[in-house]
Amino acid sequence: MQHVSKKMFGVLFVLALLVSACGGGTAVPLGNVPATEAGVPVENEAGVSGDLVIYSGRSESLIQPVLDAFQAKYPNVKILLKSGSNSELANALIEEQANPQADVFVTTEIFTIQSLYQQGLFASYRPVGADLLPAEFIGPDDSWVGLTRRARVIMYNTELVSADEAPQSIFDLTDPKWQGQIAAAGSTNGGMQAQIAAMRQLLGDVDTQEWLVGLMANDVTFFGGHTDVRKAVGAGEFKLGLVNHYYYYLQLAEGSPVGIIFPDQGEGQIGLISNATSAAIVKGGKNVTAAQAFLDFLISEEGQKLFAEGNYEYPMLPGVALREGVEPLENFRLADVNVAEAALDLNGTLDLMEAIGLP
Amino acid sequence: MQIRNTLPQLRNYNISPRLLFAAGLVALFVAIPLGYIFFRAVTGGEEVWLRLLQTRIWKLLGNTLLLAVTVTGGATLVGVTMSFLTERTDLPGRNIFRWMLAMPLAIPAYIGGIVHLTLLRPRGGLIPQLLASWFGQPVPTPSPLGFGGAAFILTLFMFPYVYLLSGAAFRSLNASLEEASRTFGRSNWQTLWEVTLPALRPGITAGALLVALDVLAEYGTVALLRYETFSSAIFVQLAGRYDRSAAAVLSGVLIVLAVIILWGEIRLQGQARFTQMDSQWRPAPTLPLKKWKVPAFLLVSLVVFSSLLVPVIVLAVWSVQALLDPAALASIMRSGSQTFGNYVWNSLWASGLAAVLAVLLSLPVALLSVRYPNKLTQAISRFCQVGYAIPGVVIALSLVLLVNRYLPFLYATPLIVVMAYVLRHMPQAVRASESALNQLSPSMEEASRTLGRTSIQTIFQVILPLIVPGLLAGAGLVFLTSLKELPATLLLRPAGFDTLAVRVWIWASEGFYIQAAPAALLLVVASAAPLYFLLRREQIFR
User: Fold this and answer.
1) How many CB pairs under 8 A join A and B?
2) Confidence band of B1 (pLDDT split at 50, 70, 90)
3) Count of helix runs (H) and strand runs (E) in chain B
4) Smallest Cα distance from A157 to chain B, Å
5) Contact call for residues B48 and B390 (beta carbons, < 8 A)
6) A72-114, pLDDT tens digit by residue?
7) Digit-coded pLDDT (tens) for B298-319
8) What is the CA radius of gyration of chain A?
9) Are A31 and A130 a contacting pair, CB within 8 Å?
10) Contact call for A350 and B240, based on CB within 8 A
11) Residue A225: closest CA among chain B residues belongs to which residue?
12) For chain B, which terminal residue's Cβ has fewer other Cβ atoms within 10 angstroms, N or C?
């Protein structure tokens, strides 16, 4: 998101204000919005102030512009951000359950947030505009809300691999002809964890394990995060990288010769694995008003545009335009995964990775 | 050291109960993490123990021991060689080399690791790429990843411990010792092996001990280079699982390991005592290197180059790049509502406060053990030094639960981070305070008491003013190590309280090395300054 200039935020901000001003008259049926909120126009920021503590598993450079825009809208709020891995922050939330510190938890996938919901960590809140989102991305009891969707794709270096040659399935990544030529994120990465959890549900433990062992036997290089992966593929250190789709676009924007494969679209293949970033309000958090305003903002047109424009993600809110050049998700056949069910067995996923020693 | 034995007359004064109480309180404070981990490990449940015993512990134990042994051996070899060359030979430029060989202490190993990783990473590293473009095909280069890489990086940034301590020993060595050896017909080499090095053993073992314990506690470097040890496994268990029992069990094993090393050190030190007669002390003569001059110079240059110059130059270049790139600069300057100035300020005040607190808490312990040496007071002093043995991640683990449960108002405040620093770095303060007190003649106190001052008055009016420089040295050490501390800060920091070390880690773990550079460089500079004054003050270099 770094390449998005301040000026652009300004433009976006003005645009968003215009949009919300025009849309002000068309009242959206609000579900169970708390009484204090119901009568207050969305544009009124007067009551929102104080410290807003956000625990975020998202890459900081990807959330900062959203925080900036929120801050511009609510100048009386002071944002305190704690960045870390999804699981690290989830653990902190569990530890702090009796003495909650965070107001909002933002994560890069659904598994962690669903698992924390089961432990009763989140307050119910149906953000303004939540009815417009696909129902499957609203947590049970309105405990969390999906923000954006991301697809797991293969990116390749077009100088080293032709489009015909590039693997069309994630299972091709275990083909010895790619030995030593693939980069991916390791076991501590939320995107990778979520992919493995999804595969366990789709295929079962045995096949998932076989795939992972195949990757390791193929000398796949596992990095801590995807930024390393995209840069390495962009620079030609690796022919292929297993990443979230927007990393391809970010790398392309830097002028690298990279191509993208949305894998497993053929007959009988598992389909495109996707995931959703999500956010929730922490039960017992000290600044409920600001937390609710923040969630409203995240799924508002303005917030969604920032995710789409700055990070090439798929906005959860229908009708928000994709960043130019991003292939719509509707063009693809998605893997049939029941997220809520997959989340039940987070430990099983961790056990599997630990057992085979995924770096 | 020998002064202590000339103090029996002081035992005539009864131990002040207030002093004993204060020291006892400090020991209790230090005991919290140990007791907690022990409790959690024991009550961790059979299931966790079985799961860990079946797979993890043995592999981790092997990994950790292998790394500790290799790095300690490597650091000892490099450290002693370097101190020999700069202290005892006519190596050209040795006055400058002395400084340059000590300065890597200001560079946290994980920052050195980031730099070397970028340079040497297979395929992607700058050096492999350069070689590939020169020769038109990939040239195999050593990988900084895995065991070899971790051992290399840690040796590179930990040898200065051995270097400084063995260097001090080299300098204080009496010429007559070696002269006697040669009089009895030993060659120079034989003298070195049979007389000089054994005489240096206390200094060398002390340095090696520091290295070994540091390797056990190391998190950042091994995590970065993907070599799993106890410390990194604990972090993964803490961060990745929703069950802390496994982390506690691993911590318990790690503590046992560290206590074994500490015990081994005491045994080794106990057997090797060398008494020197100060009145006849003359510095040992400088050995001419002759035809070895050039190779020796190149060797020392290589060590200085890879442990000091490369990291500093690379960080400086990246920092300039970051400052010139508006987007990078913008992301450096802010996270949430925090600015770069906040990170700097947080680092400085938290480390500074930890330094002051650690020294204050060390005082009663040191006073007690130096002035009233008996089994009990020695035990209290040793106990307060076990912090060396407890990695930051373990201390963090104990504080998270204890404070959250019993002192919730402290939880999620920066003070809990400071508390972790104090617990972890107390030993440095205790050792510094003890050595400062050891240098103070007890006759001053006796005079003060004879003149009618109470013991409290004596402490504040006589002892403290005289040992302030020594205490400052201890505070400097605590400040330095707190500034670099990573795992405890990562786990304990409240939202909106990032330090330079945390920022470096967050940026670098996402692959944003350019963004990480200014903070890393500043961290190195902020550590180098107190280090420089410490080395000067201690007259380690003239």
Assistant:
1) 123
2) very low
3) 26, 2
4) 14
5) no
6) 999 999 999 999 888 888 888 988 888 899 999 999 888 888 8
7) 999 999 999 999 999 999 999 9
8) 20
9) yes
10) yes
11) B510
12) C
pLDDT digits (tens, 9 = 90+) for B366-418: 988 888 888 788 778 877 877 777 888 888 888 887 888 788 888 889 999 99
Chain segment B14-35, per-residue pLDDT in tens? 677 888 888 888 988 888 877 8
- Asked if residue B351 lies in contact with residue B479, where contact means CB atoms within 8 angstroms, the answer is yes
CB contact under 8 Å between B408 and A99, yes or no, is: yes
Q: Which amino acid is at A150?
A: R
Residue A2 and residue B412: Cβ atoms within 8 Å?
no
Q: Which of A227, A186, A187 is nearest to A311 (CA)?
A: A227
CB contact under 8 A, A99 and B404: yes
Three-state secondary structure readout of chain A: CCCCCHHHHHHHHHHHHHHHHHHHHCCCCCCCCCHHHHCCCCCCCCCCCEEEEEEECCCHHHHHHHHHHHHHHCCCEEEEEEECCHHHHHHHHHHCCCCCCCCEEEECCCHHHHHHHHCCCEECCCCCCHHHCCHHHECHHHCEEEEEEEEEEEEEECCCCCCCCCCCCHHHHHCHHHCCCEEEECCCCHHHHHHHHHHHHHHCHHHHHHHHHHHHHCCCEEECCHHHHHHHHHCCCCCEEEEEHHHHHHHHHCCCCEEEECCCCCCCCCCECEEEEEEEEECCCCCHHHHHHHHHHHCCHHHHHHHHHHHCCEECCCCCCCCCCCCCHHHCCECCCCHHHHHCCHHHHHHHHHHHCCC
Distance from CA of B393 to the nearest CA of A (A): 13
Q: Is B241 on the interface with A (CB under 8 A)?
A: yes
Measured CA to CA, the distance from residue B68 to residue B317 in angstroms comes to: 33
